[in-house]
Amino acid sequence: MSETIRITNADLSVEIASLGAEMQSLKTADGRDWLWNGDAAWWTGRSPILFPIVGKAPGDMLAVNGQTYPMAQHGIARRREFLLVEQTATACRHELVSSSETREVYPFDFRLTLEHSLNGRSLAVTATVENSGHVLLPFGIGFHPAFLWPLPGAEGRPHAVTLQNGAEPGVVQLENGLIGETLPTSPFQSGRLELTHALFDNDALIFPEGAGTALTYGADTGPSLAFTFKNLPNIALWQKPGAPFLCVEPWHGMAAHAGGTAELVERPYTVALAAGETMWFGFVVEVQD
After folding, report:
1. Of 35, 250, 252, 265, which residue is 20 to 30 A from 73 by alpha carbon distance?
2. DSSP code for 257
């Protein structure tokens, strides 16, 4: 059975469940929760980890060296219990280690560690992947945190996403959950995207490259969330149309190409990690009032 722990400092408190090592709340000291609450009427997720794939596989089947395995959207980690291996007042670390069960659908040895840590009004979430086997470990990884829209204290006010680099990155169209063509124009103008629910009528907005390593989500004058990303070159924004949340999703890996192969190593931005090596990925979000 899943267990939930809490880390806290003078500014923030965070709850994390052992199922998927998934964050359940992100509260400021005044009691406001900035994270989506998982209301099943819209979407039961809150902040799942995506591993060993991001997005969908063709027919929900993943191929490794020509052999196919069943693989649901966004992988296996979010549906498995993690072990709590370390906890302090302001930080915790959970692990998922490969097993006979995971090897039935993903035939590799790995150790996936998720760490949540607080520093002032900032939360850092770090994922470390270790190749504990003897062959190359191919994988994609991503974060899928959902935050309230509107943010607490910004009800009735327009919200926007602003890229620190001021870019207008290309966006791809999903085709039945798979990566399709790049659209002719970017929804960003000089690094700014005015948020409307209609933006998500055709599923997520996925930016394979060019969105940079930092962005801000929120109202122009008032509450906002400032993000920085490490080793996560792809960014997506998503909501169920009309839902009261926005997912800000930094990834290293994407769905398979529509009409393309199911091979894991052929997926965009797949990592190939050598035996005995480790690689880490992470983001920091700062609550700004």
Report:
1. 35
2. B
Quick check: pTM over 0.85? yes
DSSP one-letter code for 51: B
Contact 267, 256 (CB under 8 A): yes
DSSP three-state, residue 150:
coil
Phi, psi of 283 (to 5 degrees): -140, 155
Overall CATH class of domain 4-288: mainly beta
Residues 6+ apart with CB under 8 A from 65: none
Q: Which residues of 56-68 are buried (b: 16+ CB within 10 A; e: fewer)?
A: bbbeeebbbeeee
Read off the pLDDT band of 283 (50, 70, 90): very high
Give the separation between CA 159 and CA 286, rounded to whole angstroms.
17
For residue 125, give both structure tokens.
């979430």
Residues 127, 113 contacting (CB under 8 angstroms): yes
